Amino acid sequence: MIRKMYVFLFICLAVLLSPLSSGVELLSSQKGDIQVEVKGEAENCGIFTLPPYSTLGDLLDLVKLSERADTSMLNYNTVLKDSDVINIPARAETVRISINTATLQQLVTLPQIGEVTAQRIIDYRSTHGLFQQIEDIKAVKGIGEKTFEKIKDLICL
């Protein structure tokens, strides 16, 4: 009876220890370098080999970003793991509206510009000619300094 109990305990102990030994093997295999793929707005896209626990900032130190790359939303402290794929996004292109040629429908897409003010812009350029500087739009009734500040980066001549 005691012998059967020892055999049972030995089997239980062997079963309990077997996951631990495979866990140790898993940990030791993670000591090697990791490979991370870079896609998107980088001039040297591809696979980069890094030490374990490297961050996105470490990776970006190795990557030559294109002029269109936008890293503003990336967390440089993110710890990378093997087989990660990092996509470097492009900056959103801002489409500017020409105050000299825009239609009423285009002008009303600007912040603080309704149909009445948009029509005043069209009427102003018909009466006075084309705007020479974007600041000249402040001469249109309804467009003061506050409105101009909100639209100045969205307009062009």
Strand percentage lies at: 5-15%
Radius of gyration: 32 Å
How many structural domains in the coordinates?
A: 2
Tell me the CATH topology of the largest domain: DNA polymerase, domain 1
Name the helix and strand elements from N-terminus to C-terminus, one letter apiece. Answer: HEEHEEHHHE
Task: Explain this structure.
There is one protein chain. The chain has 157 residues and is α/β, with parallel strands linked by helices. It is built from five helices and five strands, in the order αββαββαααβ. The protein has helices at 2-29, 56-62, 104-107, 115-128, 145-151, and strands at residues 34-40, 46-50, 85-88, 97-98, 155-156.
Provide the descriptors you would attach to this structure in a database record:
single chain, 157 residues, alpha/beta, DNA polymerase, domain 1, two-stranded parallel sheet
In short:
The protein is α/β, with parallel strands linked by helices and 157 residues long.
Please outline the helices and strands.
Blueprint: H1 2-29, E1 34-40, E2 46-50, H2 56-62, E3 85-88, E4 97-98, H3 104-107, H4 115-128, H5 145-151, E5 155-156
Parallel strand pairs: 1-3, 4-5
Antiparallel strand pairs: 1-2
